[in-house]
Write a structure and sequence with these properties.
Radius of gyration: 12 Å
Strand order of the largest sheet: 1-2-3-4
Strand content: over 45%
Oligomer: single chain
Number of domains: 1
Structural class: mainly beta
Number of strands: 4
Helix content: under 10%
Largest sheet: 4 strands, antiparallel
């Protein structure tokens, strides 16, 4: 199985989101980031 390198950018149609992996105490935390129409970042 191939290892995934982060951040991962996923594109569907004209939308693109980034997925970040953040290490925590033994668990994996994933954050999805996207930008709205005005260019503001949302998590």
């Amino acid at each position: 199985m191939k290892r995934v390198r982060f951040p991962v950018r996923v594109k569907r149609g004209s939308s693109v989101v980034s997925i970040y992996k953040k290490p925590t105490r033994g668990c994996a935390l994933f954050t999805v980031v996207h930008y709205d129409a005005e260019g503001r970042r949302s998590r």
